[in-house]
Amino acid sequence: APHAPARGPPRLGAPAPQLYGYPPQHQAAPPAAAPTICGYQVRLSNVPPELTARDLAEAFGEVSQSRVESVDLLRDTQGRATGEALVVFGSMADAQNAVRRYHGGDLNGRKLMAVYEGEVYNPR
Q1: What is the pLDDT of residues 17-57, one digit of tens each?
Q2: Cβ distance 97 to 64 under 8 Å?
């Protein structure tokens, strides 16, 4: 009587190749940690060119309960101030308060525009 073929992969005498990927195939990948929020960003437009990041940090620090995390004055390729700045606050309430207080307000004779842009995350 003919012999029935064996079920499963053919046996060639050599072990099956091992996969050396990461994570190992027999373990579940650990859940990705959620990025942590490091602040709440407000974009300022029409910032007077004579103001420094320190000037802005001090001005916004006066209306904030928590600390101002960072102030970045945006510059063009020649290094000139573009009139825009990014201010990151430690709390959403401070960011929203700054927008309410400064949007449309006068800063050194210029009408300032302030827009809440959202949460800023730590790079992972």
Answers
A1: 555 555 555 555 556 666 788 899 999 999 998 999 999 99
A2: yes
Q: Report the 10 Å Cβ neighbour count for 64.
A: 20
Residue with tokens 């060119």: 49
Q: Which residues make Cβ contacts (< 8 Å) with residue 51, sequence separation at least 6?
A: 73, 107, 108
* Model pTM score: 0.69
DSSP string of the chain, one letter each residue: -PPPPPSSS---SSPPPPP--SS-TTSPPPPPPPPPEEEEEEEEES--TT--HHHHHHHHHTT-SS-EEEEEEEE-TTS-EEEEEEEEESSHHHHHHHHHHHTT-EETTEE-EEEEEEEEE---
CA–CA dist 41, 118 (Å, integer): 6
Tokens standing for 60? 């916004």
How would you class 32 by CB atoms within 10 Å of its CB: exposed for 0-12, middle for 13-18, buried for 19 or more?
exposed
